[in-house]
Amino acid sequence: MTNDSREQWTSKFGFILASIGSAVGLGSIWRFPFVTGENGGGSFVLIYLLCVLFLGLPVLLSEIVLGRSTQRNPVGALRLQGPGTFWFLGGYIGILATGIILAFYSTVGGWTLFYTWQSILGNLGGLSIGEAETRFTAFISDPVIPVLWQALFMILTMGICLFGLQNGIERTNKFLMPMLGILLSILVIRSITLPGAMEGVRFILYPDWSDVSFTTIFEALGMAFFSLSVGAGTMITYGSYLSKKESIPSAVGNVVVFSTLVSLAAGLAIFPAVFSLGYEPSAGPPLVFITLTAVFAQMPAGGLFAVLFFFLLSMAALTSSISLLEVPLRYFEDEHNLSRQKGTILIGGLIFLLGIASTLSFSTWSHVKGIAGLPIFESMDFVASNVLLPLGGLVIIIFSAWKWGMHQVLEALRGEDGNRLAGEGFWGFVARWITPVLILAVFVFQVLSN
Ligand code: PFF
């Protein structure tokens, strides 16, 4: 397939918004707050920020550079730059990871749509925390309803991808991301102005080192990869649509800064409200669906804020799920000449089937155990987020910094004028030594301790 026929982002702005759209999702708004809550708040946030900077950022840069310079999918990109070697197998890690992530992601995506609808109908008003929990449990343990909402989530994802890059993905992000920024700002202001909210602000901003263990560091690494969408080839794919004229460092800077800000803002929208109304911050995965529902029920004009919040969460999930589906779509389009229409239906359909298993692990299949004795949903999350993403990230960083060569990466980063970039030497050192060694160390520790 010639690269001339490939679509490109209409502008660097479109690329930045789509990449932020991919990064900001359930990971930032649903997962980040509860993982932070379970891991002691501020100290976890600090370790997370370090992981973003020294592990996430170098991999993100490498992915975008690799994508843009080859204009290929992850497998094709690694094959082109490492001909005759086995590095391309790393691309398959990404394709597998995106498929598995989208499968369990669509379970929660369906929940967010259901909660948006329920809040629009006003069905969540006046619930105590106990009632909110009963509602949530009754919903997820139903064998049919959550699958239908998941199907709707997948249909929306597939529908957008079907329209292609500019008309589907870019347009959706250009519309939804600014809206998301506005909604989130409203929610943060509401939350931090509640009486007693400062305790929640303290919780995420002040480190408490007594809660930090090695597991915390591993969680932070997984979180950094998941929330920046790195390690799965998403950014190779999105980077492959970026014109060679655009400068990468400023785009990457925007993506990292904005995605991290959104995660922190999500924490600031949630914890002050949770503390203000006297709930536990460490409620785990149901934090958003149970605790927040009870929080909204007690807040002045809470019904309206509930609609805004769950709508925001659904849209954030959607802009990430389209990036997840785009990876296998692009791969099959590039490497196997599968048309976008056929690919969307076939691959989207297959992922949906896998996703049904993840949804049913809360009801009919709750007794089925997968990896390490975990239920299906948690097994998929564990394999993809804690194993495949760090592994994919490791392959990409070692390939870029050692095999393809740091000078190639830097040259691509410098852009057309070829001028040296500030901090080139430092980041080159980080990418060659710090990032791979740290990922490997955390990874080996995790495997040994299991
Ligand atoms: N970054 C997304 C989130 O935080 O919800 C999830 C994600 C998207 C992970 C794309 C990995 C990926 F390749």
TrEMBL record:
<dbReference type="InterPro" id="IPR037272">
    <property type="entry name" value="SNS_sf"/>
</dbReference>
<feature type="transmembrane region" description="Helical">
    <location>
        <begin position="86"/>
        <end position="105"/>
    </location>
</feature>
<protein>
    <recommendedName>
        <fullName>Transporter</fullName>
    </recommendedName>
</protein>
<keyword id="KW-1133">Transmembrane helix</keyword>
<dbReference type="InterPro" id="IPR047218">
    <property type="entry name" value="YocR/YhdH-like"/>
</dbReference>
<feature type="transmembrane region" description="Helical">
    <location>
        <begin position="345"/>
        <end position="367"/>
    </location>
</feature>
<dbReference type="InterPro" id="IPR000175">
    <property type="entry name" value="Na/ntran_symport"/>
</dbReference>
<keyword id="KW-0769">Symport</keyword>
<comment type="similarity">
    <text>Belongs to the sodium:neurotransmitter symporter (SNF) (TC 2.A.22) family.</text>
</comment>
<dbReference type="GO" id="GO:0015293">
    <property type="term" value="F:symporter activity"/>
</dbReference>
<feature type="transmembrane region" description="Helical">
    <location>
        <begin position="147"/>
        <end position="165"/>
    </location>
</feature>
<dbReference type="Pfam" id="PF00209">
    <property type="entry name" value="SNF"/>
</dbReference>
<feature type="transmembrane region" description="Helical">
    <location>
        <begin position="44"/>
        <end position="66"/>
    </location>
</feature>
<feature type="transmembrane region" description="Helical">
    <location>
        <begin position="12"/>
        <end position="32"/>
    </location>
</feature>
<feature type="transmembrane region" description="Helical">
    <location>
        <begin position="387"/>
        <end position="405"/>
    </location>
</feature>
<keyword id="KW-0812">Transmembrane</keyword>
<feature type="transmembrane region" description="Helical">
    <location>
        <begin position="177"/>
        <end position="197"/>
    </location>
</feature>
<keyword id="KW-0813">Transport</keyword>
<dbReference type="GO" id="GO:0016020">
    <property type="term" value="C:membrane"/>
</dbReference>
<feature type="transmembrane region" description="Helical">
    <location>
        <begin position="251"/>
        <end position="275"/>
    </location>
</feature>
<feature type="transmembrane region" description="Helical">
    <location>
        <begin position="217"/>
        <end position="239"/>
    </location>
</feature>
<keyword id="KW-0472">Membrane</keyword>
<feature type="transmembrane region" description="Helical">
    <location>
        <begin position="426"/>
        <end position="448"/>
    </location>
</feature>
